[in-house]
Amino acid sequence: FKAKAYESSFLKDEASVELMGFHDDKAAPDYCSKERWMEYIMSRAEDPSSRIAVAIINKRHLPTIKEIRAACSEKGFMPPKPVVVTRAGDDWSADEATEWDIDASSVTKDWVEAAQIALAEVKRIMQ
């Protein structure tokens, strides 16, 4: 995946969305550690009007979502809804969805669909 693939997302043009992306490839010049993006999420979690509503992640980031949920729960904050994008060959089973407490409808192989799921969640929250 490209380092800044999120920049081509239609979400960047949505007035109701502040799109932020983090590159997790340690070899990349714009690398950002897991701790940095967790800090970004947690720093905004206290304010319902600026909290991170959705985190679009790769499957390998699922353990970090558990950490974010635990940190939010500890402070009484609402965690972001995870939307998981898998590679074309990955299979997502109902058991995995249950194990990670992820709604199976929030798992996709398509980045555009992931953005659509994210936008629907933002609109739901804003109602």
From TrEMBL:
It comes from the Eukaryota. This is Uncharacterized protein. It comes from Alexandrium andersonii. The lineage of its organism: Eukaryota, Sar, Alveolata, Dinophyceae, Gonyaulacales.
